[in-house]
Each structure stands twice: as C-alpha cells, then as structure tokens.
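Q: What does the assembled structure look like for these inputs?
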Amino acid sequence: MKSSTFEKTAYSEIREQLINGTLRCEDRVALFLERIREHAALNAFLEVFETRALRKAQEVDQKIAAGTAGRLAGMVIGIKDNLCLEGEICSAGSKMLEGFRSLYTATAVQRLLDEDAIVIGRLNCDEFAMGSSNEHSAYGPVLNPLDPARVPGGSSGGSAAAVAAGLCDAALGSDTGGSIRQPAAFTGLVGIKPTYGRISRSGLIAYASSFDQIGCFTHTVEDASLLIEMMSGGDPLDATTSSVTPHRHAAVLEDDPRPKRIALLKPALDHPGLDPAAKAHFAEVVEALKAQGHHVEAVDFDHLDQLVPIYYLLTTSEASSNLARFDGVHYGYRATGTESLEELHKQSRTQGFGTEVKRRILLGTFVLSAGYYDAYYGKAQKARRMVRNWTDRVFADFDFLMCPTTPHEAFALNRESADPTVMYLEDIFTVLANIAGIPAISVPTGLGKNTLPLGTQIMAPAFFEEQLLLFSRQFHSQFRVHN
Amino acid sequence: MRIEKEDVEKLAHLARLEFTGAELDAMVNDFDKMLGFVQRIQTLDLEGIEPLVYLNEEGQPLREDRPSEPMEPAEALRNSENSDGGYFRVPRVL
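A:
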C-alpha cells in the first residue's frame, strides 16, 4: 500500500478487510504516519503518538487473528488537543498547558480504546476551544487541506483537517457552539454534536460546561454512528450524562422509506449574511428532499440575531469560572520572578492565556459581576428557556429542523477585522443546537462558488440520535461526493 | 454603556489578568464591541419565563458515600512547576 495510491475511505468500508486479514492495522498505521509527515505543513497534528499507535496496532492485529477484536478494531483516530489521554500532553491549544501531562484518560477516549480503536495523535485547535478558524491556537493556525490559503474552521480545526487530508480514519472534537459542525462543513466531512448529556465530558478540558459536547469527524454517517454509540452512555465521572439508552448502530443501517416532516429555519435562509451560492445550494437540497416525498416547510423564528449574543453571555460566564483554575500553582504555566501570590496568579494567567481567551474571561467576569448579573446572565438564562420552548414546539410538529451549517464556504486565513464579534457570527446557524441542548449533524451536500464544500445541518429532538443518524445516512448517500 | 480603561482594569483585576499600554487600549476597544453585541438580548421580552439552569432535567444521580482511592501526592504534584516535599511552592504569603 503506497501513500500515493491512498484513497480516503470510511472505516466501515475497509473493516471487512481488516477482520479477514487482507489489511493489517500495523501497515495502515505506518501509512497514516507517512501521510502525516507528508502533510506536516497543514499543522493539524500537535503531536503524533507513533510508538503508542504502532504498539496498539500490533495488539489489535493479534486480537483480530484470535477473533477477539472490538467493534472499532483498527480504526485510526486523532483526538482534539482538549481530550486527555493518560501520560500524554494535553495543551488545549494553549501556552498555559504547554507541558501538561494527563493523569487519566477521558471517558470518551477510553471507550474507543476499549473497542480497539488506535489513537494516533493529538490535534490542533483554537485555544481552549474558543474560536471559529483555528487561528487562535498558541501553536499556529491549521490550513484547510482543500485550499491551504483558507481556514479549516474551528475550534476543532486540526480534527477536521486531519480527516479531510486522510491522516486518520476519524477524529474526535468538541462542540460548544459549532466547533465540530462548522469545520466539518468547511472540509467536506460529516460532523456531529450529540445531545447534551449523551457523552461524558470527563477528561475534556472544560470551556462552557452547560454547552460542551464531544462528537466526531468522519467521511460517512455510518462511521459517525458507530463512534457515537461507543462513546454514549452514563458515566459517574460526569453527572450530566443521561441514563437514556444510547442509539443502536444496527438500527441506523436499516432502510426507512417513510417520508419525514422537515422544518426549515426560515430566518437563516433570509439572512443577509447568507452567501447567494450557499443559498442557491440549500434551495437545491430542499428540492431534492421534496422530490423524495418529504414534507418540507419553512418555520419562522423571531430571534435568530439574538442567538449568538445569548450564547456569548452564557459561555463566557462559564468560561470565566472554568478557567479560574489556571492559577500558575497547581499545574500549567507559571510566571517566574513574582514577589507575591497575587502577582504569581496575575502574571501566570496574563502570560499563559492568548488574547481571545482573555477577552472571553473578561466578558464573563463582567456578566457575573454584582449589578449586571440579572440584566445579562439571568436574562440570558431566561432567553435560553425561551429558545428551548421554541425548539420543543417545532419538534411537536416536525421530525427534523434544517438549515445551512454555515453562511458561506471556508474563508481566507488572516481575514482582518477590528471587531472580534465578526468572527462570533460564524456560529450563527450552529449555536441554536447548543443553546437548546439538541443533537445536530453537518452533512456535506455540495460545493460553493469557489468549489469548496458546503454543509447542510440537520437538528433533531434531544436523544433522537438514532432517527437523526438514520435519516442523515440516507440523506448523505444522495449527495455524497468524493473529494 | 461606554467602557473606559478603568472598567477594563477593574475587571482584569477581578479575573487576575493584567493589560497595559497598547494591549489595554485594544482590550477596551474589543470589550466595547463585545458588550454592544450582547446588548441585543435587551430587546427580548422574557416576562414570566423561568431561567433555564440545568439542561438535563433527570436530576442528580446519587451514589453510595464510600471513600475511593485518592490521587498519589506525587501524581498530584507532577504537573506543578514548583513543588517541594509534597507541597506546592508559592511566593511568601505572610
């Protein structure tokens, strides 16, 4: 198997060859390692776990021969740099955690290892998962493998770039406001954020705890379904995980010919920020759905322009609290030459955090401060209830809610802006699912004006992963284009 | 509301951060933009709506109150840049 003849295939398409011994895990890992070296300029990997990955591959090859291999036998995955793997560095894309070595493994990662997945390295991301372009990483930006002059999206930009460039079978990311779905759309991949509470966040470095969810990047919905099933389920180490039974991957593979009732987020389609080519593409998607007999109807929503502000008020508050733990004392960056404890705290944080993280901590500190709490934080919590009441009403009448994942294709690196809120609006179509806590997937459905990928977002009621994945698999098969 | 340098300095102190010179000027500008942006929620009529605090309404899971193995002190100190004899070292406090 030569790197030059490599084709980006889904794990589910090669699993049979791995199980019958036609393909060996060790050879595949060696091939991925070679490709990672060839694509070093993308800056997708912050570290490659070469020895660990090869050792695991040999172990899985033996298990396959013995007939005892797990359900993810030989699936080669990369993990976002905010997911812990015992003994390895986990830096959250920050100078603050440059040499931090995890004392334990994240539950989600452990569950994949238990099923014989192979972790090949950790992937670049925006610092503490705060960003939409991967330009806020302390370790430099990630390039979009489909056009290196453009961003791969963020914050899980390294995860998206690695899978899109064929450097691993799949990658884990985290999604607080769109950090999986937007980069998936920008790189032509399937990206899913499950329901809030579906997957344990133990071992995920927290950004905004009432929003953060772990999800994955894959070439197909089938692979996503398998990964999500493996990671789902209760965990005593994360009290927010739900006891609702996880979806069954086998059910996702069945055929469902029944027409669905699909709501379209009307203000997204009328939004002035929506690129005309993206708008035209989405109209084609809608026509295709109608032609298949689905009932498609645009639904109104009066508060689209308030969604990103609601999101920022709540997430920056939670971030200011979560990031208070970085004190320069217990772990992480420590400033030298300080004379007092307060100066140690201040200098460590000032030197260890990047600008975007500081901006958000500052806004969160303001929102939670006496005199402003009710007017901002309390009000945003009420607005969150209002938004969820609205999605509940939509799902009383419809199976799914759809809109474009992003307003446009991947944008250029180093896009200048004197206003940080311009970047915040990148998440305008994705934050709804995080505010309401519902599952959402981005499926690549076509190309935009610069022949770069465009994604379609499908949202479903909480814990309806099975229906969402089954529908998305059938939907994706109509539009699947090999890049 | 208009954000002044003093406001940012006060918030920075509360968050144990420090901005000086051009960085402070930039942060005042950025913070002003961010605050203007989030003001958009003030137009919402939220009368009579309860705040949504916990997304998962299944309630808190309970477990037996049994002690578990604590982390080894050496493990806990492993990621600290300055520790001594089982303790974290910090500048003189008293």
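Chain A touches chain B through 71 residues (CB under 8 Å).
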